[in-house]
Design goal:
This is Prephenate dehydrogenase. With 102 residues, the protein is mainly alpha-helical. It is 68% helix and 0% strand. It starts with a helix and ends with a helix. The mean pLDDT is 92.
Length: 102
């Protein structure tokens, strides 16, 4: 498979995103209890996600489903991989910013 090393990196980054999403969603719960965080979605449609949620975990789950589909495909177009990596980067950057904004 031509993207073996890339897929390994993606898998590692998805695991990082999952752990950070769990922590961030717990923090969002705390903020909501304190009367903050009254937003509908973390990402907008133009950022590439089909999911719309006020939690991070559904976005991670969307990426995992896309990644699983790519891995089981016999051919992955470079544009598909590029779009996926951009979404993953957006998620990881947003999680990092949220983590640092404590």
């Amino acid at each position: 498979m031509p993207y073996t090393n890339v897929f390994l990196q993606i898998k590692e980054n998805l695991q990082i995103a999952y752990r950070q999403a769990i922590d961030s969603d717990a923090r969002l719960d705390e903020l909501r209890k304190a009367g903050h965080g009254k937003f509908v979605a973390i990402f907008t449609e133009d950022q590439g996600f089909t999911e719309s949620s006020n939690r991070f975990l559904p976005y991670v789950q969307e990426l995992v489903a896309e990644f699983d589909a790519m891995q089981s495909s016999t051919h992955v177009a470079p544009e598909t991989l590029e779009a996926f990596v951009k979404k993953l980067a957006t998620l990881l950057q947003t999680l990092q910013v949220f983590k640092l904004s404590k």
